[in-house]
Structure formats: structure tokens, C-alpha cells
Amino acid sequence: MSVLARVREDVANARRHDPASRSNAEVFLAYSGVHAVWAYRLTHRLWIGRCYLAARLLSQFARFLTGIEIHPGATIGRRLFIDHGMGVVIGETAVLGDDVMLYHGVTLGGKSRHGITPGDKRHPTLGNGVTVGAGAQVLGDITVGEGSTIGANSVVTKSAPPFSLLVGLPAKVRPVKSSTTESARGGISWPEDYSV
Fold first, then answer.
1. CA distance 95 to 121
2. What is the model's pTM?
3. Which residues of 110-134 are buried (b: 16+ CB within 10 A; e: fewer)?
4. In the CATH hierarchy, which fold is given to the domain comprising 3-180?
């Protein structure tokens, strides 16, 4: 996909997610979440090219401008939308699928440095279509399955299957109950360790 096509996709995605947007020009010029994603793409290329210092310096400059910190080593799919964005932190080994939406104050972080060596996976993985509410903390090497929703100010430290609702402190996993979700889940049964 060309850079111009990706920019158009990002602007259209922001318009779809934010009913307050009035024009493509407004999104292009004034949406810090979109700008942070664009900066991440550049810093990630530098990171992959082993230009670590340049990547980190540019990511810190982007954080200064947008209030959003995305580590260049993170792996992020297409159409990430960060709404409002201030205070969002995405750690180095975080993995985000396509169509993820994050609200302000979200942290995708690690739990502890004790016993962790460089290169270890220490940040969460979010499946396609996951939405994370304002102020939520998703911590450690866990996986939140596709189509899940994490409530505002929840603290998630355990993995959850697809199409879950995670709420509370610590977050409890609840199935999303709707006929649409049941058919989308395709009859997937939850393992015993996901029961609440």
C-alpha cells in the first residue's frame, strides 16, 4: 500500500470513529492520534533498520508534540485510531492487530522488570477490533482476543478470549452477550481458565 493510500485510509478511519470530525482537512491537520500513528510508522522503519537512537529521538519528539508515546519497537496493524490520545503509552513489545481503538490515558505496559531480560515479550497483544476505554491499563505479556472491549479505568493483567468485555479493578472477563457476537464468534467455546 502506498504512503498516500495509507494516509487516506487513516483519515477515513478517523472520520468513521469520531462523529465530531467535520472534514478530512480537520483530521489531517488537527488530530494528534493520527499524527502519532504517522510518526510511529517512520520511527518503526528506523527501528527495523537498526537506527535505534534516531528512532527513539524521533519518537520522543512525537511524544512532545502529541502527548502520545508509541515505542518504535511496537508492532501495530492497520487502522489504529487513538481518540483524544493524551497520555497514551504503547510499550516496545506490544502487538496491536488491525482496527484497534484506544481512548486517552490508555497504557499498554509491562508489569515488572524483575527477571525479564532484553528482548523478552513483556507487553500485551491486542487482537483485531479491540477497543480500550479511557484510562485503562493493560499490563504484561497477555493476549486480549479479537473483538473485545476493555472498560474505562480497568486494569487487565490476564488474557481474555475473543469477544470479551473486561471491566473492573482488577478486570473481570465477561462474554459479550448478543446474537451478533454469538454468530461472529462462530461457536467458539471458552476454555476453563477464562471462566469468572
1. 10
2. 0.85
3. beeeeeeeeeeebbbbbbbbbbbbb
4. UDP N-Acetylglucosamine Acyltransferase; domain 1 (2.160.10)
